Amino acid sequence: MKAFLAGGLAAASLGAGLAFADTSEAEWTPTTFELENGMDVVVLPDNRAPVVTHMVWYKVGAVDEDEGKSGIAHLFEHVMFKETDDIGPDEFTTIVQRNGGQLNAFTSWDYTAYYERVAKGQLERMMELEAERMTDLIINDDPEGPFISERDVVKEERRQRIDNNPGVILQEQVMTALYQDHPYNITVIGKMEEVGALTPQDGLDFYNKWYTPSEAILIVAGDVTPEEVRTLAERTYGQIESTSDEIPQRGWQDVQPLAETQLITHSDPKVRQPEWERWYLSTSFTQDRDFAYALNVALDVLGGGRTSRLYQALVEDQKIANNASAGAWLSLHDTAPAVLSASPSDGVSLDALEEAYMAVVNDVLANGFTDEEVERSRNSLAASAIYQRDSQAGMANLYGRTLAVGGTVEDVMNYPDDIRRVTADDAIAALRRVLGEDKNYIEAHLLPEEEEQTAEESQTDE
């Protein structure tokens, strides 16, 4: 199963567009309804092939973990694949694959999602399987049982994916400093000591609280009609009673501004390419949609690809960087980080790289964008959104992600039109709002170990 690396950061692409649909084409308009037990359903017809993507999104993620229980949302994703009253150990995966299907799952701060992609004739079977593990998951204190064995698996995953990865270690340190007392400050995979202390009772409490129809969203994309999906959903999920009439309180909260600018440095012998970064607090599509759209365009012009200001100046013209980019994780629910980053060419120091990078940024902040480059960026974002509607799984993922953090179907459908309305004035105002001189930030340096030692010796000599 795929947990978001270091809390969803690698899986959420920087500056990603919010939508894959075009409002001008009615055939891409989804049908939505709610089952009597509170489960929301979204149907996305796509009749080009007899295939369906079936997703269940639970409105729970790492932000909702109790204090001292970090990692339980991700651990629970693992446990969901193990065993139920009617499905033997690891048989869930075998059943799907034996029927020619694909499956996986992922956890973020804001949600947990499970999906299967199968032939149309297998859709009801997928619903039966998901309904089974929504109600009859086995969680016990058997050392070889599903909960304790997967707890050990997650601990090993943490060792391999985080503790053995210098870049992710630095990222974890930055997020802790950037988000202070906010739940985003802990990696989704959790702290090693807290994961190791999770008990089967913790798992049962979590399961009973969050894994219930009223906290779930069903997305079905593919060769189906709304009527077919409704009939199957009522026959399977509709038979499940919600575990509580009380809606659980989500862990979302205001993000406090940074009190000061900080420098965090991490060095390791495994580092082959130094990295320079600055992390600012920005906004999100959920927090302030207009601001986020404008910032999306601004960061795309500044550092969104090979035609961006930063890439052209630092990589193509000055040749002092191997790459240079800027973006923000705007699909988070709470205030998202905006990240400026670059890696130096051979022989270029991070100080020289930073000076050149910020010269480009400061020039933009002082003089703004041209109408032409903003128009090019917003049209590119809108076009990419429309082209990507050809991905059935991508559409299902998009709608699920948007609805799970409190967005609407209309937010998805209107994105191309909304992004095209961003002006050059809107874009530069958003960028100044995030990167202004009065804004504190976290600067992060990733270095080979010998460079760190050299820097320390230089400071000693001074």
Automatic annotation (TrEMBL):
<dbReference type="Pfam" id="PF05193">
    <property type="entry name" value="Peptidase_M16_C"/>
</dbReference>
<dbReference type="InterPro" id="IPR011249">
    <property type="entry name" value="Metalloenz_LuxS/M16"/>
</dbReference>
<feature type="domain" description="Peptidase M16 N-terminal">
    <location>
        <begin position="42"/>
        <end position="189"/>
    </location>
</feature>
<keyword id="KW-0732">Signal</keyword>
<keyword id="KW-0645">Protease</keyword>
<protein>
    <submittedName>
        <fullName>Insulinase family protein</fullName>
    </submittedName>
</protein>
<dbReference type="InterPro" id="IPR007863">
    <property type="entry name" value="Peptidase_M16_C"/>
</dbReference>
<dbReference type="GO" id="GO:0046872">
    <property type="term" value="F:metal ion binding"/>
</dbReference>
<feature type="signal peptide">
    <location>
        <begin position="1"/>
        <end position="21"/>
    </location>
</feature>
<dbReference type="Pfam" id="PF00675">
    <property type="entry name" value="Peptidase_M16"/>
</dbReference>
<keyword id="KW-0482">Metalloprotease</keyword>
<dbReference type="InterPro" id="IPR050361">
    <property type="entry name" value="MPP/UQCRC_Complex"/>
</dbReference>
<feature type="domain" description="Peptidase M16 C-terminal">
    <location>
        <begin position="198"/>
        <end position="381"/>
    </location>
</feature>
<comment type="similarity">
    <text>Belongs to the peptidase M16 family.</text>
</comment>
<keyword id="KW-0378">Hydrolase</keyword>
<dbReference type="GO" id="GO:0008237">
    <property type="term" value="F:metallopeptidase activity"/>
</dbReference>
<dbReference type="InterPro" id="IPR011765">
    <property type="entry name" value="Pept_M16_N"/>
</dbReference>
